[in-house]
UniProtKB/TrEMBL annotation:
Species for this entry: Flagellimonas chongwuensis
Occurrences of domain Methylamine utilisation protein MauE (ranges): 7-87
Annotated protein name in UniProt: Methylamine utilisation protein MauE domain-containing protein
GO biological process terms held by the UniProt record: methylamine metabolic process
Keywords in alphabetical order: Membrane, Transmembrane, Transmembrane helix
């Protein structure tokens, strides 16, 4: 049986994915300008977060889902670095929080990797 904290991680990604559909404008305004079709990308990333969050809950899909989460978080680093590029891109979030989000991404990658071989 998987540890309880695996389900905490899964719930976090499922919740984040659902929020892409409830508050899409919040996500669209932090998208780098060089990426096309922000609304579609927000919805696709929301679907990816939900599918991967569900996938880690099952033995048959856990390894693939954890590596999917790691890849997704790597891609999301583009947004984090973009938000550090200027005041408008920061969406009003203090710079110190934006800086802390970068190592947090790497922690989340490690956390996902931890479950790849359960």
């Amino acid at each position: 049986m998987a540890p309880w904290h695996l389900y905490v991680m899964a719930g976090m990604y499922i919740f984040a994915g659902v929020m892409h559909f409830i508050k899409p404008k919040m996500y669209m305004r932090i998208m780098p300008m060089y990426l096309p079709n922000h609304r579609l990308l927000v919805y696709l990333s929301g679907i990816a977060e939900m599918v991967l969050g569900i996938g880690v809950c099952f033995d048959a899909t856990r390894k693939l889902s954890t590596f999917g989460i790691i890849l997704m978080l790597g891609v999301f680093l583009l947004v984090h670095f973009y938000m550090l590029s200027g005041e408008k891109a920061s969406a009003g979030i203090p710079k110190w929080i934006l800086i802390l989000r970068v190592p947090l991404q790497f922690f989340l990658m490690y956390w996902a990797y931890y479950y790849a071989y359960l």
